[in-house]
Amino acid sequence: MPDIQTTRGDSRLVAIPVFDADLDAYRTATEISTASAIEYVVTDTPEASTNYLTKTFNDASVNVQEVQNVETVELSEVQDANPEAAVITVKLEVSDTQDLPIETLWHECQLTDADGNVTTIMRGDFEVLESATNPPN
Q1: What is the average pLDDT across 68-73?
Q2: 77 pLDDT exceeds 60?
Q3: Which residues of 112-135 are buried (b: 16+ CB within 10 A; e: fewer)?
Q4: Nearest residue to 86 (alpha-carbon basis) of 35, 22, 40, 123
Q5: Mean per-residue pLDDT for 120-135?
Q6: Which among 104, 108, 98, 73 is positioned nearest to 87, based on CA atoms?
Q7: SS in 3 state form for 81-108?
Q8: N or C: which end of the chain has fewer CB within 10 A?
Q9: How far is the C-alpha of 96 from the C-alpha of 120, rounded, in Å?
Q10: Residues 6 or more apart in contact with residue 130 via CB below 8 angstroms
Q11: Distances (CA, A) of 88 to 8, 44, 95, 96, 129
Q12: Is 55 in a helix, a strand, or coil?
């Protein structure tokens, strides 16, 4: 599901199952672990005039794992289809969400495979909710 909600100032795990190019099967974690680049961004719009957050495969917060090893996000439909399906997880920390504006932003994940093929594997709305404990400055 590409559209998500998060409360301002909270930690959040974004889990992104990875389909093959024909969108008819999940790619395996072994296939995706050889990717040359993975980039996850949160911007104001798809045109990205304001970039709020970028995470890459080089960050410790971006991982590729089998769906059966993802415990904090409900992905039973993916696991039922293929327990070895690749899921890219992006860990957002408090510092990542603390200063986000309280509005609907845009998020997207792009993968570059070992052969240099670039695929946008997820895109959608990223809604930031108000928080009484973390109000805007």
Answers
A1: 82
A2: yes
A3: ebeeeeebebbeeebebeebeebe
A4: 35
A5: 88
A6: 73
A7: HCCCEEEEEEEECHHHHCCCCCCEEEEE
A8: C
A9: 22
A10: 7, 8, 102
A11: 22, 22, 21, 18, 24
A12: strand
Please state whether beta strands 37-43 and 51-56 pair in parallel, antiparallel, or not at all (unpaired): antiparallel
Question: Both tokens of residue 22?
Answer: 């024909």
User: What's the angle, vertex CA 107, arms to CA 5 and CA 45, rounded to 5?
Assistant: 105
The b-or-e profile of 90-104 (16+ CB within 10 A means b, else e) is: bbbeeebbeebeeee
Per the prediction, the chain carries an average pLDDT of 88
As a whole number of angstroms, the distance between CA 1 and CA 61 comes to 20
Query: Which has the closest alpha carbon to 49: 106, 109, 133?
Result: 106
CB atoms within 10 A of CB 23: 7
For residue 113 the two structure tokens come to 């495979």
Confidence of residue 14 (pLDDT cuts 50, 70, 90): very high
Confidence of residue 96 (pLDDT cuts 50, 70, 90): very high
